[in-house]
Write a structure and sequence with these properties.
alpha/beta, Aldehyde Dehydrogenase, Chain A, domain 2, 2 domains, seven-stranded mixed sheet, six-stranded mixed sheet, binds nicotinamide-adenine-dinucleotide
């Protein structure tokens, strides 16, 4: 571990990674490696939690290809020094900001989208001219293994290395000196990473979780709302950091909303023998989730199959903020529905909880949309949709408060792994002597006149 990190520091100091042509070549190579090994990637994730080729391509690989394409297309522009205005105090001079890579970066991934969450930050780090140590989540062990295999076969360790392991290995890694740590995972572990980073004053990006609300107001298009909410909640069996965690629906449309959601779930046919529904990642999470399914609250679903780690898409109704299911991020296929009678009160309830990673607003009223956007702080989200904001690389992706620090995707990813070096470039043909000794009242008078300008 230590020798890999040291080798990366040494390699970084050769300045090879700073060359834009080198970065583009590495990104093209990564794309090719992924394309050539798609079969292996599908096989591994199928073994881990029965994720289909369709879902793996659309929710993992497609996003990685998009990130690579975007980076290759804009890299030259992103990495150029940017001229800024020079103020009169510094006349004559020019001023510019030079993006530079931070150095050796540690990327720690989460398990729920194992390829996307490990490799998208790595793509941003490479685009910005860094070296990368990637520590994928150990929980989906097959995907971790396959990433290790294809990266180590195709990239030099001193540039891009994968270190596998769980808590002991990550703890050891966090003792090394990195120039940037990019972590995706729970808020609880995020705090551990933040503390470890503080030892070396290492900058961090923390992509964390939380309870993301979805507001459904009487002005919404009910059919579209149910279709998009059900898709965003139950894709990956709810194991999505930006899945709508719970719904706040106006009491006047609750019944219609519930029945529209039921119809959408039935249409999708999420059976455990089907390809379009994944398993719960492990027994620990299966057990944790089944405890949320209180029979008196079941509106739809509730069936489970322990041997398959299968939980049917489940809708719970008559739920309040004090119920068990509202005490932590659900991260599974269980959708609690809470009714409200006045939007301001519903917003106030959400304000009492930690700032969420996402928020979804199903409403056709501009007034309601504006009110929620203005009064609630959240990482990112969508109006009249769920989850899809993640697929636009022009929208920085990240949390706020307990749901995270910093963001990435597209240029935001490049920025997350860059330092912006400010340079004042002075000309020699003129020097105003006011700041130099001997100091005098007359000089001060002049300085004061300038500041009145
Ligand atoms: P986790 O925090 O348990 O694990 C994340 C990573 O940290 C793994 O690589 C793991 O090996 C490592 N880790 C775990 N415990 C550790 C410890 N004590 N010390 C050092 N390292 C440790 O998270 P998870 O279960 O993999 O993912 C689920 C959580 O991640 C959810 O809260 C979800 O919302 C969040 N998440 C956020 C995003 C995002 O983009 N914001 C994306 C996916 C998941």
């Amino acid at each position: 571990m230590q020798s890999i990190v040291e080798a990366q520091h040494t390699f970084f100091l050769t300045h090879v990674t700073k060359d834009v042509a080198f970065r583009i070549a590495q990104l093209q190579k990564l794309k090719q490696v992924l394309q050539e090994n798609e079969g292996l990637l599908y096989e591994a994730i199928q073994k881990d939690f029965k994720k289909s080729e369709f879902d793996t391509y659309t929710t993992e690989l497609a996003l990685l290809y998009l990130e690579i394409k975007d980076a290759i297309q804009y890299l030259k522009y992103w990495s150029q020094p940017k001229r800024v205005v020079t103020n009169w105090i510094n006349f004559p001079a020019k001023s510019y900001i030079v993006p530079e890579p931070l150095g050796v970066c540690l990327v720690i991934g989460a398990w729920n989208y194992p390829y996307q969450l490990s490799l998208a930050p790595a793509i941003a780090a490479i685009a910005a001219g860094n070296t990368v140590v990637l520590k994928p989540s150990e929980i989906p062990s097959e995907t971790s293994k396959v990433m290790k295999q294809i990266i180590s076969e195709n990239f030099e360790e001193r540039f891009f290395a994968v270190i596998e392991g769980g808590i002991p290995e990550t703890t050891e890694l966090l003792k090394q000196r990195f120039d940037k740590i990019f972590f995706t995972g729970s808020t609880q572990v995020g705090k551990i990473v933040y503390k470890a980073a503080a030892e070396n004053l290492t900058p961090v990006t923390l992509e964390l979780g939380g309870k993301s609300p979805a507001f459904v107001t009487p002005s919404c298009n009910l059919k579209r709302t149910a279709q998009r909410l059900v898709w965003g909640k139950f894709i990956n069996a709810g194991q999505t950091c930006i899945a709508p965690d719970y719904v706040l629906v106006h009491e006047s449309i609750e019944k219609k909303f519930l029945s529209a959601c039921k119809a959408e779930i039935e249409k999708a046919d999420y059976a455990f023998e089907n390809d379009n529904y994944v398993q719960i990642i492990n027994e620990k999470n299966f057990k944790r989730l089944t405890e949320f399914i209180t029979p008196k609250h079941i509106y739809f679903g509730g069936n489970t199959e322990a041997s398959q780690r299968f939980i049917e898409p489940t809708i719970l109704h008559d739920i309040g903020f004090d119920d068990k299911v509202m005490q932590e991020e659900i991260f599974g296929p269980i959708l609690p529905v809470i009714t409200y009678n006045a939007l301001p009160k519903a917003i106030q309830q959400v304000q009492k909880l930690p700032k969420p990673l996402s928020c979804y607003i199903f409403s056709n009223s501009k007034k309601e949309q504006k009110q929620i956007l203005k009064e609630l702080s959240f990482g990112g989200g969508a109006i009249n949709d769920t989850v899809m904001h993640i697929s636009n690389p022009n929208l920085p992706f990240g949390g706020v408060g307990h749901s995270g620090i910093g963001n990435y995707h597209g240029e935001a990813g490049f920025k997350a792994f860059s330092h912006y070096k400010s340079v004042l470039h002075k000309a020699n043909w003129l020097e105003l002597s006011l700041k130099y000794a001997p100091l005098s009242k007359r000089k001060l008078w002049w300085i004061k006149q300038f500041f009145k300008l």
